[in-house]
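Re-run with default settings, no changes from the original entry. Doing this only to confirm the output is reproducible before filing.
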Amino acid sequence: MSEFQPEKLSIEFIEGTTDTHPIIPRRYTLTHSDHTGDLFLTIGHGFAWDNINPLRDEVLGEWIFSDGTLKFLVYLYIDRGEVDPSVAARRVDIFKHELPLALHAIKYGDRNLFDTYPSLLQSPILVHFMSAYPEFARQEIWGSFKVKSISKTKGMSCNLGIPFYF
């Protein structure tokens, strides 16, 4: 995983979203440049579909309220129409390697929201690996934003075969 560099993060608020409001709906689109290493975070009521790369390397996230608690959902699109499952397997590995950096960038980019509502730091992070291949389509619990180093919680994944939503 690369080290997070705040100066390489550009942040844009859209659709009337501010640095502290609203929490719901609040959606994140994190994209990057392979050439410069720059990260681009868009925060709004909806995902920034116009910023999405055809290679589908973005990280999408959103706050939801479910079962009496706020949760942060992350969506990672593993497949790009490949017919070779080994390509999807490599993409899963890359996403797992780079996801802590992406979550750090989201936390840093929306730090005023976390400062205003510190209880959000306790919310579970649920990562959805979206794939046509059942062996890669799953949900994993990745701790919370409170921990200094965000990573997958061991033993907390479930192979679903299809995307799972709360």
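Residues 116 and 133 are 40 Å apart (CA to CA). The longest strand covers residues 69-77.
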